[in-house]
Amino acid sequence: MRMLVVDDEKVLVKGIKFNLEHEGYTVDTANDGEEAVALVRENHYDLIIMDIMMPKVDGLSACRQIREFSSVPVIMLTARGDNLDKLVGFESGADDYLTKPFDVLELKARIRAILRRAAAQTPSDDTGEEKPLVCGPLSLDPLKRRMTVGGEAVELTAKEFDVLELLMRHPGRVFGRESLLRTVWGYEVPGDIRTVDVHIRRLREKIEPNPAEPIYLLTKWAVGYYFRE
Length: 229
Known about the structure:
Order of helices and strands: EHEHEHEHEHEEEEHHHEE
């Protein structure tokens, strides 16, 4: 597994790199968003850990640029604890969020959770072929991690893909926000319920003919979200 750690605090980067390499990961580093985007264009990474406040190109801008060509999972780091800042991070395409100062054990736990979910989507040689999930012009291929609308490829973040796959596998079943957080994110995130709303809205913008009047990703008011039957 190869990871990229991006932060202008060189001591922090050194510490994260040391701990992750001790776990057996290969770790590259960068100290600003501009360098990070360039590295992601040139290399394959299984995960990116990136600070928000950095010189040249900040983490949010870098994440948005990366999302233009890659769906690699991104964990954002920040010294801020405001939920609004977290939502802005998710809006920019982040998959997870960790507030400084943090316990390295928590960081490792979140990394393992993300990598487990990614591994669960990778077919083994003897699993056989699984057909894409199809609804009208929408086609989601769980094995190739590929989404198309009307035959055109649509780039989804790792979390967006996981949310959509879960809902498409259970059409008509309503999932509450807490249930989606537990199932997709893999742990409780107190106070971050709106994270689910952000991801649903972004998905609607990508797959719905008219996001303001969705026909695929529907809302059961005061309960949660579901995919049309």
